[in-house]
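<instruction>
Derive structure tokens from the sequence
<data>
Labelled lines for chain and fold
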Amino acid sequence: MSETRRRALPIILLALVIGASLVLSVRLYNRYGQTDYQAQIVGWGVPSDTQMTIRFTVRVPAGKAAACTLRARDFNGNELGRRDVVVRPAGNATTIEADEPVTTKARGVVGDVLGCRPAG
């Protein structure tokens, strides 16, 4: 192998790695990046020691359903319960208002919406 080829090989390999990294980054961003499914916590209620009701809104593309992950926590931030729910808009609405129960293993004090995505 000539000296020129030996010098070019690492440069070519580096270019291939950079190119593959860019392609992967764009694909991941398109899949998980900015989302049209944006949730906002409205509040929560604690009807019992084994359940929390989480109220939230989700902005969605017109008429599309959302799959959301809800979480109940205790005063120290420990997770007491988690639930995945699918919420659907009325007609072609772009905002969904939901009020969903989450089963807990102890009395919860904070409810969270961890995120929403297209319902599959």
Summary: The two ends are 54 Å apart (CA to CA). Residues 3-32 form the longest helix (30 residues). The chain has a mean pLDDT of 90.
